[in-house]
C-alpha cells in the first residue's frame, strides 16, 4: 500500500502505529491484579521527563497496523483490553473500539487526556500531566484519576484535578518509579490525612511481570 494511502487510514483511525501488544496482569490502579491484553499505541508529545516508555513517543518508528488485525489478536487472549501509549487519543479511537465492542470485550483506556476523547470505553483512567493539560470534558467522564507523584508539588496538582472529576471517580496517587523510595512515605502520609485518595503502586514491577 502506498505511504499516502496508509497515512490516510492512520488519520482515520483504521490503522494505528502499534508499538506492542501483550497479555499480562494489570499492575496499576483500580483493576490491578486483573488479567488483561494491552495494546500500546505509539505517538506522544506530552513529554514527561520520567516516562518509562519514551520509545513510544515517535509514532513514525512504529508500523501502522490494521485495527482488524489488532482486534483479532486481542480477542484470542482476554475479555479485558487496555489501550495505552504513548498517548492513544492522539489518534481516532472510534474504529478500534467499535470492533472491540463487537467482540463483546471490556475496553479500558489509559490517557493523559491531552487530546479530545474518542472511542467508546468501559473504563477511563485519566492520568493528567503538567506539560499538557487535559481537554474537553474528560474529567467528568473519568472513572479513575491516577496522578503520578514525582515531588511534593504533584500533590497540589492532584488536588487541582480531583476538584474537576465526578464524585464517583476513584482517586489514586502513584509514586514515580525512579523516586519511589523518596515519595512513597510522602504519599502514604498524604492519603492517611486525606482518605478520599488511595495509593497505587506499579505492582507488576515488584512482581517482575512485563
TrEMBL record:
Pathway the protein contributes to: Purine metabolism; 7-cyano-7-deazaguanine biosynthesis
Protein residues bound to S-adenosyl-L-methionine: 50-52, 86, 127-129
Positions of the Radical SAM core domain: 31-210
Enzymatic reactions: 6-carboxy-5,6,7,8-tetrahydropterin + H(+) = 7-carboxy-7-carbaguanine + NH4(+)
InterPro entries assigned: 7-CO-7-deazaguanine_synth-like, Aldolase_TIM, rSAM, rSAM_sf
A GO molecular function held by the record: S-adenosyl-L-methionine binding
Keywords assigned by UniProt, alphabetized: 4Fe-4S, Iron, Iron-sulfur, Lyase, Magnesium, Metal-binding, Queuosine biosynthesis, S-adenosyl-L-methionine
GO biological-process terms attached to the record: tRNA queuosine(34) biosynthetic process
Cofactor annotation comment: Binds 1 S-adenosyl-L-methionine per subunit.
Cofactor(s) the protein requires to work: Mg(2+); S-adenosyl-L-methionine; [4Fe-4S] cluster
Subunit comment: Homodimer.
Entry's family note: Belongs to the radical SAM superfamily. 7-carboxy-7-deazaguanine synthase family.
Functional note: Catalyzes the complex heterocyclic radical-mediated conversion of 6-carboxy-5,6,7,8-tetrahydropterin (CPH4) to 7-carboxy-7-deazaguanine (CDG), a step common to the biosynthetic pathways of all 7-deazapurine-containing compounds.
Protein name stated in the entry: 7-carboxy-7-deazaguanine synthase
Amino acid at each position: 500500500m502506498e505511504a499516502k494511502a496508509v497515512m490516510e487510514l492512520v488519520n482515520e483511525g483504521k490503522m494505528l502505529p502499534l508499538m506492542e501488544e501483550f497479555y499480562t496482569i494489570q499492575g496499576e490502579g483500580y483493576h490491578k491484579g486483573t488479567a488483561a491484553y494491552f495494546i500500546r499505541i505509539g505517538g506522544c508529545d506530552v513529554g514527561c521527563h520520567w516516562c518509562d516508555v519514551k520509545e513510544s513517543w515517535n509514532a513514525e518508528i512504529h508500523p501502522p497496523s490494521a485495527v482488524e488485525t489488532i482486534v483479532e489478536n486481542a480477542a484470542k487472549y482476554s475479555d479485558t483490553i487496555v489501550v495505552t501509549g504513548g498517548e492513544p487519543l492522539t489518534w481516532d479511537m472510534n474504529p478500534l473500539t467499535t470492533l472491540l465492542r463487537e467482540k463483546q470485550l471490556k475496553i479500558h483506556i489509559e490517557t493523559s487526556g491531552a487530546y479530545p476523547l474518542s472511542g467508546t470505553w468501559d473504563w477511563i483512567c485519566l492520568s493528567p500531566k503538567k506539560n499538557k493539560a487535559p481537554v474537553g470534558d474528560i474529567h467528568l467522564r473519568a472513572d479513575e484519576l491516577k496522578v503520578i507523584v514525582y515531588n511534593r508539588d504533584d500533590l497540589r496538582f492532584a488536588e487541582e484535578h480531583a476538584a474537576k472529576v465526578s464524585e464517583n471517580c476513584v482517586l489514586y496517587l502513584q509514586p514515580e518509579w525512579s523516586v519511589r523510595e523518596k515519595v512513597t512515605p510522602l504519599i502514604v502520609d498524604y492519603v492517611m490525612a486525606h482518605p478520599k485518595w488511595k495509593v497505587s503502586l506499579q505492582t507488576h514491577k515488584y512482581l517482575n511481570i512485563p
